[in-house]
Amino acid sequence: MKPRTNLPQAEIDEIINSCDACMVGMVDLEGDPYVLPFNFGYSGGKLYIHSGPTGKKIDIWEKNPKVCISFSSDYQMNIRNEKVACSYSMKYKSVLVHGKVVSISDLDEKARILNIVLQKYSGRNDFSYGKPALINVAVFEIQVDKVESRAYLH
């Protein structure tokens, strides 16, 4: 059976929210693929990531902010005939988000976004932040250009 593509938004949201991390793909300064895992926040159809304020990824995004972010979940082996190798397949759901990394500099907005990220992992969104902490963290919104989705469940 062929995978379903262009899933409804509610299913896309469910896939994204079910993931513990996302994989962010970019092109490094030498033109090579570069992929890193990130914790993330997702709220109101907006995607956020954060990191330290310096490093290779920051250097890359200053030159080329384009990224492709992968989310995948619900892996399950599908076996039609245990004795036939080609009858094995993997059930899954996936979402690819294509877009641009946009740096957030406003400290109040950083705090709001960090609470979205922390809500995902802690269940709380009532944290407070000192100014030095907010200055020393890089927070990004992904400006979404395109979303692709797929589910193979049979």
Q: Compute the CA-based radius of gyration.
A: 18 Å
- How does the helix and strand content classify structurally? alpha+beta
- Assembly state here? single chain
Report on the biggest sheet.
8 strands, antiparallel
Ends apart, CA distance between termini: 6 Å
What is the highest CATH level, the class?
Mainly Beta
Give the overall shape: globular
CATH architecture: Roll
Fraction in helix: 25-40%
Count of helical stretches = 4
Q: Examine the coordinates and then state which fold CATH places here, giving the name of the CATH topology.
A: Pnp Oxidase, Chain A
Question: What is the H level of CATH, i.e. the homologous superfamily?
Answer: Electron Transport, Fmn-binding Protein, Chain A
Unreliable stretches, pLDDT < 50, 5 or more residues? none
- How many domains make up the 3D coordinates? 1
- Strand tally is 8
Q: Order of helices and strands, N to C?
A: EHEEEEHEEHHE
Q: How much of the sequence is in beta strands?
A: over 45%
- The average pLDDT value, as a whole number, equals 92
What does this structure look like?
This protein has 154 residues and is an alpha+beta fold. The chain has one domain (4-152): Electron Transport, Fmn-binding Protein, Chain A (Pnp Oxidase, Chain A). 25% of the residues lie in helices and 45% in strands. It contains four helices and eight strands. It has helices at 9-18, 56-63, 107-122, 131-135, and strands spanning 4-5, 22-27, 33-38, 40-43, 46-51, 66-79, 88-104, 138-152. Strands 1, 2, 3, 4, 5, 6, 7 and 8 form an eight-stranded antiparallel sheet that branches. The model has no long low-confidence stretch (mean pLDDT 92).
